[in-house]
Each structure stands twice: as structure tokens, then as C-alpha cells.
Amino acid sequence: MQTRAHTHIYLYTHFCVLMCVFCGAFMQHWRTQLKHTFVFILGAAAILFIYLMNCYEEPAGSDPGPYHVAYPRNYRFIMDNTSTCRSTTPFLVLMVPVAPGDAAARDLIRQTWGGESLVLGRRVETVFVTGLPGGGDAERTQRELRRESRRHGDLIQSDFRDSYHNLTIKTMVMLEWLAERCRRSAFAVKVDSDVLLHVRNLVALLLEPGTARRNYVSGLVWWHSPVVRNPFVRFYMPRAVIAQSEYPPYPLGMAYVMSLDLPARILEVSPLIRPIYIEDAYLGMCLQRLGVTPTDPPRGDMFLVAPRHPLTSCSLSKVVAVTTTSPSQMRSYWERSREDVHC
């Protein structure tokens, strides 16, 4: 009896071992299949997510997230009484994006380089681009903007909320205005309000025989600009937004000039490229889709984004655009740039 019991135990033990081996093999096979299935589903979900991130057009009024902006949209101009490109046809239009409440910057530009209307025999006109003011004093700021517009006739305002995050919207609205109004003009320059523009040098550059009248974009061109992947660094962009490691070449937003055949063409391709909040990089993405490559200026000292101040009179005589650190410095540089310096 004891022997039979031992035999039963022996057989049962072996049976259990065999069942464990079988179950283990089955579970291993099942886990492998499950793993492959999971990887497949995860990959498909990732591809779908990337597709939606690049192609999805969010409904009006929705939050596009921290990296995108809600453009294109049907923004409209609520202030536009300037005569520029309406009753005049300037050779060069100076477009200055500026905050609604920054009347001091606009006045300084009007008194300096923005007040130059005839340069080397070519007509030059300045227009300021702004959006809706925010904050508790928005109504007062808007009233002051209307008075300023009646007084100077050089403001255009669209109904987007003016903010740093919406600089891409401001740029695209600027292009909309140029495409609609200034097709007969030759060039436009977008220039930040803290930048000194040497208008004479810019017009001279545009009049050179080698300067193209079509497909022309120039400024301080950034080539092979890396996409920032560190989330703790400014201008961070996750791979889900931009998979490429580099941005297409683009002119730095401080100041760039373009031929006026381009605004309408950029607007045509912009719906195909979901806009990011880095406005100059987005411009480069649109230019790449058009097959247009920015042109380096003839000299590297013509566009200076972070120069060592103060600049010499010789340096000022060569620049096209240079960032300044204060209103007094801009005024001083403008006065010195008008001196007849040869070096």
C-alpha cells in the first residue's frame, strides 16, 4: 500500500511538473504574442498620435496647447486707416510688430528711422502691427490706440490677443495684410521695435543688381538650428511636435526682408503646416514647403542680434539692423548712423 502511494505521489509529481512545463511554455508563448501585439498597438498609436499632432486642426476657441498656436483662423482687422499701399505704392514697407500699450516705442521709431520716407530716391513707409490688449487696463489702452491711429495713420490692429506666445499669429496677420494690400510694392521688412534699422543701407542692398525681386528672403539666417529637446530650456520642443532634429533655415525674427511675391504664397502653404509658437522657425518651415531658401546678406556684419555695445561709428555705417538695449541707445545710434562715415 505504501509502495502504491509512493507511486501515485511520484506520478502525480511528474504530472504536475509536466503541466508546469506545458503551462510555462504556453505562458511564454502567450507573453511573446502579447508583447508583439502590445508593441504593434503601441506603434500604431504613436503613428496615429504624431499624425494627429501634425494634421489635426483644432476647433475654433479650443486650446492648441503650449507649443502650437491657433492659426490659421479668421482673424479680422479692426483698425486699418493707413494710406500705405492704398493710395501709395512704396518701394519698401517697414512692418513693426509692437505691443498695444508700447506707444513710447512707436513714437521713438516715428522720430528716428521709421520717419524716413524717401531714401535713395525710393519711397519707404512704416506701419505698426498690433493685436488686442489684455489685462485690467485693456479698455483704456484700446481707446488710446484709436486716438493714436487717428493722429498718425500708421497702425493696423487685428482681433487676436496680443502676447508673446501669439507672435506667430502676429506674423501671419502681417503677411495677410501685405498679401492683400501691397502686391504692387517690391519689398517688406519685418523689424522688432527694439531694433535700429539703417534704412539707407537696406534700400541700397535691395537696389543692388544681384538682389532678386522674387523668392527673396534675407536677414540673419540661422542654418542647422537644432530643435531644443531639454524641457528646462527656452524654446523646448518635444518630438511629438517636431520629429526632426533641426529646423529648416530661417531668418532670425529681429529683422528680415522679403520680396512681396512671398506673403500670398506663404499663406497658401501655411494650412498644411501646423503652426508653432516660435514665429521665425515657423516661417522657415513654410519657406521650406515652398522650396524657397533664405539668402545670406553680402556681409556678416549687416544684421547684428547681440553685438558688443557701444558700436563704433564705423560699425554703424555698415549695419542694416542691430538690436539695441534702450531707447536712448537707439536714438544715439540713429543720429550717428546718419553721419557720413567712410571706413
TrEMBL record:
Recorded hits in Gene3D superfamilies, A to Z, give:
3.90.550.50
Enzyme class, broadest EC rank: transferase
Which domain of life does the protein's organism represent?
Eukaryota
**Name of the protein described by the UniProt record:** Hexosyltransferase
Pfam families from the UniProt entry: Galactosyl_T
Transmembrane feature ranges? 9-30, 36-53
Q: In which pathway does it act?
A: Protein modification; protein glycosylation
Topology in the lipid bilayer is annotated as: Single-pass type II membrane protein
Coiled-coil residues are: none
GO CC list:
Golgi membrane
Taxonomic source organism = Salarias fasciatus
What keywords are annotated for this sequence in UniProt? Glycoprotein, Glycosyltransferase, Golgi apparatus, Lipid metabolism, Membrane, Signal-anchor, Transferase, Transmembrane, Transmembrane helix
Q: What is its EC number?
A: 2.4.1.-
MF terms in GO: N-acetyl-beta-D-glucosaminide beta-(1,3)-galactosyltransferase activity
> Does Glycoprotein count among this protein's keywords?
yes
Question: GO:BP terms for this protein?
Answer: lipid metabolic process; protein O-linked glycosylation
Protein family: Belongs to the glycosyltransferase 31 family.
Q: Where in the cell is it found?
A: Golgi apparatus membrane
User: Key word Lipid metabolism present in the record?
Assistant: yes
